[in-house]
Amino acid sequence: MNILVCVKQVPDDFAKVHLGENGKPALEGIDKVVNAFDTYAVEMAVRLCENHGGRVVVATIGAEEEVRPSMVQMIAVGANQAYIFAPNTADGDESSVAAGLAELVKKTEETIGESFDLIMCGKESTDEISSQVGAMLAEKLNLSFVSSVIDVKPAEAGLCVKQETEEGSASYEVSCPAVVTVAKPEYDPRYPNLKSKMAARKAVIPYLSDALTPVQPAVRCMNYQEPAKREAGVKIQEKNAVDAVARAIALMADDKVL
Amino acid sequence: MKTLVYIETKNNKPFNGCLELIHEAMDLGEGTAVLIGNDCEDSAKEVSRYGIPVLVLDTEAVCQDTVLAALVSAAADTQSELILMSATQTGKDLAPRLAARLDTGCITDVVGIRKDGESLIFTRPAYGGAVLEDMQFAEGKKAVATVRGGSFTKAEAAQAGDITVKSIEIPADAVKAKLIDTAVEITELVNLEGAEVIVAGGRGCGDAQTFGLVEELAKLLGGVVGASRPAIEEGWVSRAHQIGQSGKIVSPKLYIACGISGAMQHVSGMIGSDYIVAINKDEDAPIFDTADISIVGRCEEILPLMIEEIRARKA
Ligand SMILES: Cc1cc2nc3c(=O)[nH]c(=O)nc-3n(C[C@H](O)[C@H](O)[C@H](O)COP(=O)(O)OP(=O)(O)OC[C@H]3O[C@@H](n4cnc5c(N)ncnc54)[C@H](O)[C@@H]3O)c2cc1C
Questions:
Q1: Burial B74-91 (b: 16+ CB within 10 A, else e)
Q2: How much of chain B is in helix, strand and coil states, percent to nearest 5?
Q3: ipTM surpasses 0.90
Q4: Which end of chain A is more exposed for a tag (fewer CB within 10 A), N or C?
Q5: Going by DSSP bridges, is the β-strand pair B112-116/B119-126 parallel, antiparallel, or unpaired?
Q6: Chain A within 8 Å of B309 (Cβ-Cβ)?
Q7: Domain A2-208, classified CATH 3.40.50.620, yes or no
């Protein structure tokens, strides 16, 4: 099975983002990581190929030098090949990214000379958290779509995919090729080991600088704001837990929240 | 502006988050509510009571692919320029797909809409709620958006809107993902979004027994139990209780966080609470930055005393 995982590099979502002097999110000082949901997708893809054969290709849209370390990291955790595509828009919204990815899929298929059976994206990216790109990509490629997938198995007619739902789960059968987005499965993504890290560092990662057609975004961000800050509260640090609780309850009673 | 509101239904009841969109749709101009399926009669009546015209698209097989096809036809029929859905799992799946079919973009998790001359500005959180973005559609593009629950107030009852029922045939090849089975693992009804009091426990509870104290305090305060992701992974409570980016976004009057460190992914789900009390053994825990009352201490010591003290006050 040939699997493509679309990967996005994002600012580390454990860091709190603030607006800079230009009124835009100041992301310069924040570490760049692979979107957590994309790492779940890569792990799911690698497991699928380990169990049933196949290969995992990862691809991203971004500036070569900036995103290369993330691609190397995905190879170190099991991806077989990686591609980097130069952005198709400077100020892309989800619809323009999806259009770029649809083209990326075709171009990557041409490059490797085979077509993909399954295209995976993370359920959402941890920066914009819009959960649109996978769904839009499926439409642009006119393929079947299932979101929030936590398990994939080969089935007679293609694939059986398990979707996490608010109440439990739902199982779908899709023919290949299909597009799915991945939620957090029961397992965690693997860590690279020394050997896989060394090997990944030597990987050749092609950069396709003008493969994607420029597109106009359908949605633009006009302005950023920071939500009103919460005022610092009272810190209760008593030697004795009884005193601490008594003070806390008294304060809560004064503030009429009990 | 012609606005279409998609009303999700379940067991022939309209979803509350969708009802919250009716008032906004009518405020913006000509609104129409659309319901899709073969058992929408009661829901349609309930929706019409808010004074909005209702379009029922009667179709046999209901799955996401068929609903999407029906929505495309409803958007065309009503010549809608704005299509609103609730930011449920279903809404978040359908909206971007619909947007792609209408050759436009989509805005997720909208918390406010305002007019700016002829165009609309949609406000939404990004970066775990640390930033709010004001978004606008490019000229000539239709607008598709999902709205976060609790962002708009429900409409008042008014003179009932007309109900139009139309049956539509959806070609069989529209269904690409075949639903073969659903499993209901979570049967309890956990109304975190509507809760006035939430007592939430995290990894710092240490064990199921201490997490039980969280549950006891919630019960005592007439509240609902919340949890961080690790508490769910430990198996102390079901996924229905998760608060945060991958769980529920809540805004109770009182939120008590017990043994929760305050990671962005959790805080983004509870930062809208009116009053936050946090219990943590680490005096530098980030959760204290958002708390009105920060108690430095251990859950297993603080919680029993708190329960005792509140019980005594109630008596
Ligand atoms: C993509 C993604 C999505 C996520 N979505 C969510 C989400 O929706 N919701 C969510 O909650 N998390 C989510 N997470 C996980 C999140 O990043 C944090 O890991 C999680 O919130 C931490 O939970 P915690 O505070 O319970 O545990 P920890 O971070 O381990 O903190 C435990 C805290 O308990 C304190 N403590 C320890 N012992 C005691 C004691 N005896 N008494 C009192 N305090 C004690 C410690 O000082 C510490 O502060 C997500 C992560 C990712 C990557």
A1: bbebbebbbbbbbbbbbb
A2: 35, 30, 35
A3: yes
A4: C
A5: antiparallel
A6: yes
A7: yes
Ordered per-residue pLDDT tens for chain A, 258 residues: 999 999 999 999 999 999 999 999 999 999 999 999 999 999 999 999 999 999 999 999 999 999 999 999 999 999 999 999 999 998 899 999 999 999 999 999 999 999 999 999 999 999 999 999 999 999 999 999 999 999 999 999 899 999 999 999 999 999 999 999 999 999 999 999 999 999 999 999 999 999 999 999 999 999 999 998 888 799 999 999 999 999 999 999 999 999
Measured CA to CA, the distance from residue B14 to residue B71 in angstroms comes to 17
Alpha helices of B194-238 — where are they, by DSSP H?
208-220, 229-233
Nearest to A225 among B132, B138, B178 (CB): B132
Q: What is the CATH number of domain B187-314?
A: 3.40.50.1220
Q: What angle do CA A69, B267, A222 make, to 5 degrees?
A: 70
In chain B, whose CA is at the least distance from the CA of A37?
Answer: B246
Which residue ranges does chain A devote to CATH 3.40.50.620? 2-208
First to last CA, chain B: 56
Contact B279, B258 (CB under 8 A): yes
With CA atoms as reference, report the closest residue to A70 among A31, A34, A28, A30: A34
**One-letter amino acid identity for B25?**
A
Task: Check CB contact under 8 Å for A246 and B297.
Answer: no
Extract the tokens encoding A85. Answer: 């595509």
Pocket residues: Cβ below 6 A from ligand 1: A 36-37, 126; B 202-204, 206, 228-231, 242-247, 259-261, 263, 265-266, 269, 279-282, 285, 298-300
Domain range summary for chain B, segments of one domain joined by +: 2-180, 187-314
How big is chain A, counted in residues? Answer: 258
DSSP structure class, residue A209? T
Cβ neighbours, 10 Å, residue A121: 29
B2-180 and B187-314, same CATH topology: yes
In terms of CA atoms, which chain B residue is nearest residue A20? B131
Q: Are the beta carbons of A71 and A45 closer than 8 angstroms?
A: no
Alpha carbons B85 and B19: distance in angstroms, whole number: 10
Which CATH entry fits the domain spanning B2-180: 3.40.50.620, 3.90.25.10, 3.30.390.80, 3.40.30.10? 3.40.50.620
